[in-house]
Amino acid sequence: MTVPVKAVAEQPLTAAETDWRERPDLPEQQRDALPEFCSGGYLQPEGYRQNVGAVPTDNSNEPLQASGLSARYEIDQTLWLQGDVRLRQGQFDVTGSEARYNQADGQLRLSGPLVSRGQGFLLTGDRADYDTDTGRLDINTATFLLHEAEMRGSALSLSQPQAGRVLIRQGNLTTCAPDQNDWALVASEIELDQIEGVGTARHVRLEIKDVPVFYVPYASFPIDDRRKSGFLYPAFGTSNTGSGAFLSVPYYLNLAPYYDATLTPQYIHGRGLFSEVEGRYLSPFGESVLQLGYIANDSAYEDEEPGADGERWALDFSTRANLGAGWRGYGDYSVVSDNDYLSDLNRSLEISQATHLLRRGGVRYTDRQQFFELYVNGYQTITDRIADQNKPFDQLPEAIYGFERDLGVVETVFESQYTWFDRDNSGLTGLDRATGQRLRVLPELALPMRALWGYARPSVTLDHTVYELEDYTLDDGSLGDGSFERTVPVFEWDSGLYFDRQSTLFDIPYNQTLEPRLYYAWADADDQSFIPDFDSAIRGFRFDDLFSRNRFTGGDRVGDANQLATAVTTRFNDLNTGAERARLSLGQLYYYDDRDVTLNGEGADDRSDSALAGEAVLRPMDTLDIRTSGLWDPRTRQTLEGRSQLVFHSENYRYLATLGHTYRRGEFEQSDIGAVFPVTDKVSLIGRWVYDSQTDRTAGSLAGIEYNNCCWSVQLVSQNYLTDDQNLENRILFQVQLKGLGGSGGSSGRISEAIYGFDERERRRFGPRE
Length: 770
Description:
Layout: H1 15-19, E1 20-22, H2 28-32, E2 40-42, E3 64-67, E4 70-74, E5 78-89, E6 92-102, E7 107-118, E8 121-131, E9 137-146, E10 151-162, E11 165-174, E12 183-193, E13 198-208, E14 211-222, E15 230-231, E16 235-239, E17 244-248, E18 251-256, E19 259-268, E20 272-282, E21 286-295, H3 299-304, E22 312-324, E23 327-336, H4 341-344, E24 356-366, E25 370-381, E26 394-407, E27 410-422, E28 435-446, E29 449-451, E30 454-470, E31 483-497, E32 499-505, E33 508-523, E34 537-538, E35 552-553, E36 561-574, E37 580-591, E38 612-621, E39 624-633, E40 638-649, E41 656-664, E42 668-678, E43 683-692, E44 697-708, E45 712-722, E46 728-738, E47 742-745, H5 747-754, H6 758-766
Antiparallel strand pairs: 1-2, 3-5, 4-5, 5-6, 6-7, 7-8, 8-9, 9-10, 10-11, 11-12, 12-13, 13-14, 15-18, 16-17, 16-46, 17-19, 18-19, 19-20, 20-21, 21-22, 22-23, 23-24, 24-25, 25-26, 26-27, 27-28, 28-30, 29-30, 30-31, 31-33, 32-33, 33-36, 34-35, 36-37, 37-38, 38-39, 39-40, 40-41, 41-42, 42-43, ...
């Protein structure tokens, strides 16, 4: 007995399946921008593409165009079309098997399977009603696709009451590929507003692999890149810094095009309810950002600090303004309630773990020939390890003015600085008690000589400083006259030559330069130990410091000098691309007199030459960068300092690798290695390890795993880090990203801080993030 086989009607394509293209079938530009873990993308006809934020076209004023294999028309009444029916009105386009158009009321009924297109969207269904007078479209058993958001879905019924607005009943939506249903939002009602870039839904449940995992009665979400008020994804993690587990639920407020805010209430186990808020304001002049953190009753802090108030808070404010005509304004102010706030509570405020918090505000003017700046500057010291005499001075205020003028063959340069230094000097003795005013002027006269093959610049400078001090007491306890001056004449001669030649290496044409340089400096400075130290320090010594005439920073010490720097640099430039493939530099200082001027007993020396200072930068490929610099003592044949870093990334940043080593003889030595290594197209391992050779311990580590596909990603990271008291602490962080619905967590930012190039990798994969 033979059982007849029934013919099965071929199912029509959904909207997403209609415009889906596998990776090889996409245009080259779109294919190159596609992450490697995406198998394809959507491609719509050129005439229907829409820019983000563009207002969809109203089609009701356009004439109706209709065609079919057969037609029957009743004059001024009804038009019947059958077979390959196509109707078009403006940007509205629909195809189906049959159509009936009532000319009297403008109603058009279509039978499917039908396909309808508009600006930036595609709809399919069994049958539809279309009003040619209003542009309203109603479809039964529909599927839809929004190309810009790459959002697809299905619905029991779908209406488009006007251009750019879609109403969905008993529907679902997702940003996953047509053959991938990893997650979906299922709702009784969904509204998609292309004009505002917003989607809203009622009675919403989030389904993962068709399993409900979350329900809310109402939700809103963006359908393009424009900002939208609403809850962001919750963040959670753990830390053993005394706060234990935490859970935060940020809420973003898009208050206006020029200001917004993010509220982040969070619960921290063992501490209680902690809240942070960030507000941003964009004016015609610039941007201002205010960040606040507050906890009313920190129970863990009360236990750690008996008698302390559990109320804790922090504030960080920054502003930048372009005032026009060369003027700019700026301000930065940070304050915390106690020294332990940052290590205990700070999660999102952009205040670094530091010993001092900056308060600074001022204005700046620049043009081609002169500059001026006036500001006030202060600090909050947030560690008990710094003695009172080592705390920084406030500048109340500081004014800087300078200009350059060309007077024929002569060039004049003038720099000046006025500062009023102040701090709490109770309990201090000697020069540490001094506060007051300092005026420093540096007029310079130079004779610049320049040619294609080299340059020379002899110059004479008069470094003159005037002090008016209060509480000026010498270190021997005697009172001193707080009004005095210091004048140091300075002579400099800077000169260099340029040589170049062209050749080939591995069949690549390149240009090599050879750039010898001589720099001589002479400064007649005497003992300055009677001058307080307001802002000076001994300058670090690297290759660039060979060409600095003063071995001190700040304005309270001018070093005596009679020295010659000799150096040479060679560069290799790829003539095909113009890229600098290598740069090698080496130099040394020769001293003709002993150095006598000191700062806190340091800075004097009788050695006649310095260590060799060198640096090298190698870029054999656009994806490989090797940098190294250091100091080597030819007398002892020992390396005094060294800094090396290797950074590699593949062209698409799928692979990342960093190697680093920092060394200072007898003081410090650390090595670090970091990498992002893809195990598959979708799974990557992330890691970084920092080892301190001096203490023979791990100074920090990070280990995690990342999973990506074309509609969602997740990162799970465990991080060890040193706190201010040099204890190694641990925290576990995560980040989840549902494409089209945003993401949350703190792991991505932490990885970017640890591994060079990770932020660029994230930008290329997911675009810029707010």
